[in-house]
Specification:
It contains 16 helices and 23 strands. With 543 residues, the protein is α+β, with helices and mostly antiparallel strands. A 14-stranded mixed beta sheet has the order 3-4-5-6-7-8-9-15-23-22-16-19-17-18, with helices on both faces. Strands 1, 2, 10, 11, 12, 13 and 14 form a seven-stranded antiparallel beta sheet that branches. A two-stranded antiparallel sheet has the order 20-21.
Length: 543
């Protein structure tokens, strides 16, 4: 059998997506052997009482892409990296039937539950990409034995049966160059032109692929707006057929939920982040005592110009998509460990309590993931992030260095509300002690308030690390007994220049207020018990 990623079947589907002007556009190149029967063009069908628009594969009876009247789009690609399979092909169900069975789902919570109830061993390995209306997708990868949820699916996905990593990187580079490192959007015409191109050369690696007895056999474009779903289908080689030949429309039912509406970013100055001004707000005496050269050094270390340049490039971007853009720009993503528990329904007003390993991208990643399932999520964080205007709709700013009474009042107001919350109870980024990543003791207030307001508590463990530079500066500052957290100035460096690109996320079982109360006799004991649960989620062997 061929090794993973070295299949002798050069079939290489490509999917790209972007969100622009309150609409989602998905373009899918389907690659197949030319001897396979031609697919039937899209048609509207009613499945479980929901209207679904999808093409159909006559050989397997399923489909590779479907959109329903709720605006949900479900796509599937083969997972060749999973390698060999034990069962004969005849004992597997067509993966396209899985798409069909999931296509009527109205939201991600229902789809996630339905996916967990399906015996996936009946299917060969796959990538499942699901778009909840005009918002970024969630991806699942099935490798034949375990299902992994991917956070931060890139704007371009490739399923290659040969030279998997090489071809995926080359195609991604083509789109990255066209979008200025994924910071700008493409017109629909430009996006389609990339899918019709014989680039990158040779044709084996091209987006519109062609190689011996196989190639791109169709191009499907799905456009989702708040009012309708439009599917354009072009059979044949898109590099030689200039325009889609058939267009289908499906009117969406109802109206988008208020929390799913696009949130525009309020205007901000050209240089929204001023490190010296922020230092003056927190420590005026120190700011005034610094010589000019020290101030310039602080601006350089904190990457002030890089941050402001990046924010200016996306100033027109709606707040809903800032986390996705940040992940795509940095190339960071996350994956949910298979041991993760179920997500509680939004009406339980959950509060997620997590460790804080990196102090930057871990928050962006968890915001991106949770906001997909809980559009109204709020993160209780350091008020310094209030200077990032795109983050304002999603954060509850707390002054970590000022009036503790005001900070407490801010937290109380948040816990009294109905929005789901995300909290880092340690209040600061983890440091290394004796080579082990260690957090400060978790503060009791988040636990105390969750109990008082009868919120469901969900422990979350995030696996991630900063660079040796960050930990080295922290160690040196401690040895020199410098009270100012100098290493925090390097968090911007950790954001833009990091080697650790794949974060692991493990979600614990949701706990009712009564279950949390049984963890200890006091809120301090309960907070410590929850911290230990979090640690155990990241280290199952210790349980």
């Amino acid at each position: 059998m061929p090794a993973p990623g070295r299949s002798t079947k050069p079939t290489m589907c490509t999917l790209s997506w972007q969100i622009r002007n309150n609409s989602l556009t998905v373009v899918f190149n389907r690659d197949e052997r030319f001897s396979r029967p031609d697919a039937h063009p899209p048609e509207t069908d009613t499945i479980d009482g929901v209207r679904v628009l999808a093409p159909r594969d006559p050989e397997g009876g399923g489909t590779w892409i479907a959109a329903n009247e709720h605006g949900m789009v479900v796509c599937l690609m083969n997972n060749y990296r999973a390698g060999s399979h034990e069962k004969p092909d005849r004992e597997y169900r067509s993966r396209g039937l899985l798409v069909r069975s999931l296509s009527p789902m109205s939201d991600l919570h229902r789809l996630r539950r339905a996916l967990s109830d399906i015996d996936l061993h009946a299917y060969r390995p796959f990538h499942l990409i699901v778009f909840p209306g005009t918002f970024p997708p969630i991806e699942w990868q099935w490798n034949g034995s375990k299902l992994t949820e991917i956070v931060g699916a890139p704007p371009v996905l490739t399923s290659a049966g040969i030279l998997s990593d090489y071809i995926a990187k080359r195609r991604s580079r083509l789109f990255r160059k066209a979008t200025d490192d994924f910071t700008t959007d493409l017109s629909d015409e430009k996006q389609l032109s990339l899918h019709r191109s014989r680039r990158p050369w040779p044709p084996l690696t091209s987006v519109a692929m062609r190689w011996r007895d196989r190639g791109t056999v169709s191009l499907t474009q799905v456009k989702v707006t708040p009012g309708d779903v439009i599917m354009r289908y072009q059979p044949g080689d898109p590099a030689t057929t200039p325009h889609p030949t058939e267009t289908f429309r499906l009117e969406r039912t109802g109206t988008p939920k208020p929390e799913r509406k696009i949130i525009p970013c309020e205007p901000f100055p050209d240089d929204p982040v001023d490190v010296i001004r922020l230092l003056g707000e927190k420590n005026p005496a120190m700011q005034q005592s610094l010589p000019g050269i020290a101030k310039s050094a602080l601006r350089l270390i904190a990457r002030e110009r890089t941050i402001n340049n990046g924010l200016n490039r996306v100033r027109e971007l709606p707040c809903n998509f800032i986390s996705a853009k940040a992940l795509h720009y940095t190339g960071v993503r996350g994956h949910l460990e298979p041991a993760s528990g179920a997500l509680p329904p939004p009406e339980t007003r959950p509060v997620f309590l997590a460790n804080h390993p990196t102090g930057g991208l871990d928050g962006i990643l968890i915001l991106h993931w949770l906001s997909t399932y809980y559009p109204g999520i709020r993160l209780i964080v350091n008020d310094l992030l209030w200077n990032i205007h795109h983050m304002r709709p999603y954060i509850v700013p707390v002054d970590m260095y000022g009036d503790s009474r005001k900070a407490l009042r801010t937290m109380v107001d948040a816990f009294e509300g109905d929005q789901p919350l995300m909290v880092f109870p340690s209040g600061r980024t983890a440091r290394k002690k004796n080579g082990v990543l260690t957090e400060e003791p978790w503060r009791k207030n988040p636990v105390k308030m969750a109990l008082k307001h009868q919120r469901t508590v969900v422990p979350v463990h995030i696996e991630g690390y900063n660079s040796r530079l960050f930990y080295g500066v922290a160690r040196l500052r401690t040895l020199l007994r410098i009270p100012l957290n100098l290493e925090m100035l390097f968090l911007s460096h950790e954001f833009f220049y990091r080697k650790w690109k794949d974060f692991g996320i493990t979600v614990g079982e949701p706990m009712t207020a009564e279950q949390v109360r049984e963890l200890g006799k006091s809120d301090v004991e309960r907070a410590e018990a929850l911290r230990r649960i979090c640690v155990q989620l990241g280290n199952p062997a210790t349980q």
